[in-house]
Write a structure and sequence with these properties.
Blueprint: E1 2-8, E2 18-19, E3 22-23, H1 24-39, E4 44-48, H2 58-68, E5 72-79, E6 86-90, H3 96-113, E7 117-122, H4 126-129, E8 135-142, H5 146-152, H6 155-173, E9 188-192, E10 195-200, H7 203-213, E11 220-224
Length: 225
């Protein structure tokens, strides 16, 4: 079974980019957990380099992926610095397989977000340089740009970023969905503000979805059916 390491950038004492009352570290953790939850419907193993608000060194992020033997490493970030839109990065020495995966993931996110495409780029980032498997770093919108910040404050935008990453990863690794539920399977439904946002066969994945919406929604219910 394929293995995907999702890396939520920054964390702990490192907030990452900040702007308009938001911190990158919180947004990317929410997105990373959303991707993990979405991928629970597919035949793939998923791990996060951090699942809480804590600092993790760049070297340790890469080490986690290398030790686990991940097939793909995706580092999630929010941009800053006077621009707008979406861009992605691979290491300058990345091979054809990595470049193909970058293109697949990049296009899937752009399709969901429908914002300015800043292109597929290269950079000597540590998490791209030190990982031994195909690695892609994404920068979704600019936290210090007025219009991008307005988008980042919308639940629909976060869901679009999550969906784009999920679709890109699924396509890049040619993942198959898990078997259909039988009458003997347990299903956990997550209801946020009276709208179902997910259904999971494993309670831990449903719990992560609940945590991702905690503090942001008026009501959250976890139903077992």
């Amino acid at each position: 079974m394929k293995k995907v390491m999702i890396d939520a950038g920054h964390g702990g004492s490192d907030p990452g980019a900040v702007g308009h009352g938001m911190q990158e570290k919180s947004l990317v953790l929410m997105i990373a957990k959303g991707i993990e939850a979405e991928l629970s419907a597919y035949q793939v193993e998923v791990k996060l380099t951090r699942a809480t608000d804590r600092i993790v060194s760049l070297t340790d992020r890469a080490r986690q992926a290398n030790t686990w033997g991940a097939d793909l490493f995706v580092s999630i970030h929010i941009n800053a610095g006077g621009g707008t839109g979406f861009e992605s990065f691979t290491h300058p020495s990345a091979g054809r397989t990595t470049k193909t995966m970058q293109q697949t993931i990049h296009q899937a996110i752009i399709k969901q977000l429908n914002v300015r495409d800043r292109g597929q780029k290269t950079a000597n980032f540590a998490v791209l340089r030190e990982t031994e498997m195909p690695a892609v770093l994404t920068e979704s919108l600019f936290i210090d740009h007025v219009q991008d910040a307005k988008l980042l404050k919308k639940r629909s935008t976060i869901e679009a970023i999550v969906a784009g990453h999920r679709e890109g990863i699924v396509n890049a690794l040619a993942l198959s969905k898990k078997h259909k539920l039988s009458v003997h399977d347990q299903l956990y439904r997550v209801i946020v503000d009276n709208k179902q946002v997910g259904a999971y066969t494993e309670a831990k994945n449903a719990a992560k979805q609940v945590e991702a919406h905690f503090g942001r929604a008026k009501s959250i219910r976890l139903e077992r059916v």
